[in-house]
Amino acid sequence: MLDNADELTRNLAEQFKAEFLNDLYLFETSFADQGLVRNEAVKLSNGEFIAFLDGDDLWTSAWLMDAYHFLQSTDYHKVVAHPEFNYFFENYSSIFRHIDQTSEEFILDALRVVNHWDALGMAHRTHYESAPYCKRDVSRGWAFEDWHWNIKMIEAGVTHR
To answer: How far is the C-alpha of 31 from the C-alpha of 137, rounded, in Å?
Structure first.
């Protein structure tokens, strides 16, 4: 999904497609809203599992297969898979650790003040279909679509791993 992509980004995506994944589909949107772009990606996809990989996150090449195999080994209708670490590099560099909801480190009440997981994850498509991402309203201070979605998953009995 290329949302409001500039020419350089579009060209790089086309080059990647030509060199590595000729059967990759590129779609352009102009939502300027990550949640709405993700909802559109779900509608346009046909896979059983969906992974969101934002352009400002780094992840290892093995992560997609590792997440897929992990979900296959669990009751994937009740799980969202996240990598343990995520390296952010857009406005500043930092390493974000996703906490496994089944670990002793996870404190449910902490979700009132901190989001334990960003959008970097993989889940069965029904999770995204049953709980679409909400529209952001940055002008009024609402830009926590990932946090909101994560809580909706927990309310639905889905575990973040």
So the answer is: 12
Q: Which residues contact 62 (CB under 8 A, 6 or more apart)?
A: none
CA distance 127 to 97: 22
What does the pLDDT look like over 43-93, one tens digit per residue?
A: 999 999 999 988 777 777 799 999 999 999 999 999 999 999 888 776 777
Q: At what angle do helices 145-155 and 34-44 cross, to 10 degrees?
A: 60
Please state, in angstroms and rounded to a whole number, the distance separating the CA atoms of residues 40 and 31.
10
Considering the entire predicted model, what is its pTM?
A: 0.88
Degrees, nearest 5: CA angle 92-108-79:
80
Is the distance from CB of 116 to CB of 85 less than 8 angstroms? no
- 34-66 in b/e form (b: 16+ CB < 10 A) is bbbbbbbbbeeeeeebbbbebeebebeeebbee
Angle ∠(124,18,27) on CA atoms, nearest 5: 50
10 φ, ψ to 5°?
-60, -45
Q: Which residue's entry shows tokens 């973040």?
A: 160
